[in-house]
Every structure is written in C-alpha cells, then in structure tokens.
Amino acid sequence: MVALAAAAGALALALTLDRFATAGNLFALLRSISVVGILALGMALVVMGRNIDLSQVAVALISTGAVAKMLAAGVPLPVALLGGAGLALAMGAVNAGAATLAGIPPLFATLATAMLFVGLARSSILPGASIHLPADAGWLAGLGGSLGGVPVPPLVLAACAVLTHLFLERTVPGRFVRAAGINPRTAAVVGLPVLRTAWLQYLVSALAAFVAGLIMLSSSGLVDLQLANSTLIFDVLLVVVLGGVGLSGGRGGIFGVMAATILVGLMMNAMTILDVGSQMQSIAKGLALLLVLLADGVLRRGEAPAAGI
Q1: Is 122 helix (H, G, I), strand (E, B) or coil?
Q2: pTM higher than the cut 0.85
Q3: Which residues are registered as beta bridge partners of 147?
Q4: Closest-CA residue to 239 (of 253, 258, 252)
Q5: In 3D, which of 208, 285, 265, 226 has the Cα closest to residue 53?
C-alpha cells in the first residue's frame, strides 16, 4: 500500500507541479530522501528490537563534524573516516549502555544522550555551530554529487538497504533482532543473547547515522550542529512507522521502509515547491506522525507493550 501510494504521489506531482519533474528538483529530492532513508534503516533495526534511538541526528552531525575538523587539520582522509566512525560507535555504545546496563527506558536515555553529545561536542572538539568541509577532501567531496550523471546518495541508500535486508533475513544476529522484538522475555529464557543484540542494534544505528552524516556533509559542504534541534529525527520516525515497523517490535521489513522514505520525501518536496511555511510543514508532519502512531497502536492492541518506548 505504501509503495502504491508513493508511486501515485509521484505521478500526481509530476502532472500537477511544473517544478517537480525538473532535473534540479529530482536531484535535491533524491539527496534528501537518501539521508532520511539511511537514518531510517538504522532506526528500523532498533525499533524492531523494541528500542528507539533519538540521538541519531546528533551522532550524525558530531561524528562527521569531527571528520571535517580532522581533515582541516591535515589528517589523511582514511584516518579521519576511521576516527569519525569510531566516535559514532562510541556514542552508540553509550546509548546501548544506558538502555541496557543502566536500565533507563530507551526513549529517555537517547533523548538525554542526544543533548549530552551535542553539549560535550560544542564545549570541546566542535566549538563552532558550523564546521566546513575543506576543499581538499578527496572523494568525500563527491559523495553528495553524481557519478556519470547518476546521483551518488541514492546509490549509497540502495547499498545500505540491501545490506540491512540481508542482515535481517540471512544472518543469525538479524533473526535474533526479530526474536528479541517479538518477545524479549521468551528470547532470554531460551538463551538468545538479548542484551548483546540490543548493543548490536545501537551500534548499527550509530554507523547508519555516520553514513547519513557523510552525505549531508558532502552535499552542503558543512556540518550545522543546530540541525540537532530540528525535526529531522521525527521525519525518520515517521518513515519507520509508516513503513510498517511496529513499535511493539519484531514486525516490518526494509521494502516498506524504503517505500515510506519515498512517500515522505515526496510530501516534503511538494510542500517546499508550494512554498508552505515551516510552521505548517511541522503541523503536517506532526499530524501525519500522530495518525500513523494511532494506527500502529490499533494494530498492536492486545500485544505486550514495547519496553521503554
């Protein structure tokens, strides 16, 4: 249904909005949905395990901001990328520890860590609100561009989607994610590594945030830490739930998430073309998210509540 709605929406916009089917707008659309889509892939894994990660945007901005800072200091690109990925994984480990070892509900744990991460970054390694990508950033500068006329961001999104699908459907840890999401107590009783699986989910979510952040950095040429206070994380949640990933865990698939990514991207793009104000856009996105959450609540009525969400 979501895929059909996305296809119908694209056709309707192409027929009714003159500026929709232009090369420039389509490229901007593909770039924007790629960022949201990659974040949604990481979020989907976390939500399937009955958790949530509200720190994704903060992790994306801080880890890639550190990459830009290291490149400006003359650090070789491979080393800078390893350093940024390591920083993202460290923040993911903090999230996992807070949600599992400390026993803090994931909703509150990751909301708190998002503020903590940004505060620590602003007071130490990233004192400025904006960090620019150096001109000599090598191939990283082209990550948000095109290759042979084909936009690179959607190619990265497609690769991430395929890898995530294979992880969920073809690997033992992926099956553990679903099992822990369906019934974590039963999974623990039968000996499944529920805590290790939760750690894996948060680490993968952090890596997804790092990749999405690299696309944002390459596309805009800078990292704006003020985006940590934007509604981007709610766009990601809207995509995940609209894509059929149930908050009760264990339900959903990557195809649905990708279809929802396109649908939400089309909605955002149409409102931008129609010059809808930011406040009205927030109202529209908030209402859509509320309706989707209500629908999810109706569908999972009678199921065990999702812990921490």
Answers
A1: helix
A2: yes
A3: 150
A4: 258
A5: 208
